[in-house]
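The protein record quoted in full:

***
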Amino acid sequence: MATIKTQDGTQIYYKDCGAGKPVLFSHGWPLDADMWDSQLNYLAERGFRAIAFDRRGFGRSDQPWTGYDYDTFASDINDLITTLDLQDVTLVGF
C-alpha cells in the first residue's frame, strides 16, 4: 500500500498509475480514491501519470482527530505533490 507522511505525521494513501505528465485527482466527501479508477486507467493507457489519494479521514488514510480544515487539506496535497516530485501537475477535484 503506497502512502506518504504529511507534515503533521498523518499517513495519506495514494494510487499512482502510468508515466508521463501527472494528473492528480482529489475526491469529495464521503468518497475515496477508488472513485477515480476509470479515469486513472483511461489516462494511464494514454501516456499520463494518474494519481489519486484518500484525503485524511477517508478510505485507507489515517483518521486523526485534527486537520479537517481547508489549510490542512491544501497542505496535504502540497505534501503529496512534493513527495512524489510532481512537475507541471494538473489537479482535478470533485
